[in-house]
Amino acid sequence: MRKVLVILVNYNSETDTKVCVDSLFRHEEECDVNVVIVVNAFKQKKILNELSNDERVNILYPESNIGFGRANNYALDWAFKHLDFEYVYVLNNDTVIDRGVITALAKVLDEERDVVIATPRIMYLSEPEKVWYGGGEIRMSSGRPYIYDFGEYPSKSRSLKDRYVTFVSGCSMLFKRDFFDKNTLFDDRFFMYCEDLELCIRINRMGLKMKYLGSIYIYHKVHGSAASHNKNNYSGTHIKNPNLAFHFLNIYRNRRIAMNMHLNGKEKFVFNLLFFFDVSFHALKFSLNGRFKPALMWFKILF
Q1: Does the reported pTM lie above 0.85?
Q2: Residues spanned by the domain of 283
Q3: Rounded alpha-carbon distances, angstroms, from residue 262 to 16, 135, 255, 259, 301
Q4: Residue where one domain finishes, among candidates 192, 223, 254
Q5: Has residue 237 been placed in a domain?
């Protein structure tokens, strides 16, 4: 039976975390699953206490909110010292996993030694017929991943097709443990956003592969943690996002850092030129709509 470590990061979203954990334990007959939950913030300690009563669940409380990427690294470091596992599944805590998914992903890693990440199709939980992640490719000129069938119904030639990809969302990444003998997970410089982008570029540059399975899928609530303090669920750089300044700064600054870590010469020049105009356009748009604090993030992003 495969021994699988699953890492979840909780930020004021204990109900989502419990639903996710319950779905993971449906794999009990096919996988030996141990869950490590890193609690960056919480509102319902009772749910966490209930989860901790299960010997398969380990809950870690950092001294402060350490962000998404660092929280995953924190959990992995702890697990190396305390748990026995063969696979590492980095998973968003607002997902729901069906039976057979982990086994199918692990089989790819077992059979194709040059594949270091396996990932499934990800569907919206609120609109389960529509695609949130259908395989992705990194556009190096912009640093933006292109997602097949994003927000659309799955199609045979795109999101339903198994393929090698250059971008895998940090929402769902399955690794074999031995990948971490010589490699790190996420770069600690990224508090939130683009840690998956940097990791995927790093893997691509190493000549290793990532495989997307369109034939299997999980469900994603999308922005579950953000929704806990954002009633209208406006996310990212949406003009009405109450946390727009934070998201604009972290999404764009981290993208710039990730790309400049790996680009050289002409590629680097083209990216930074297009990036400058992209950031400036958004800052102008925010200013024209009275969102002056987010607009001022322009300086922190570029300098």
Answers
A1: yes
A2: 244-302
A3: 35, 22, 11, 6, 18
A4: 223
A5: no
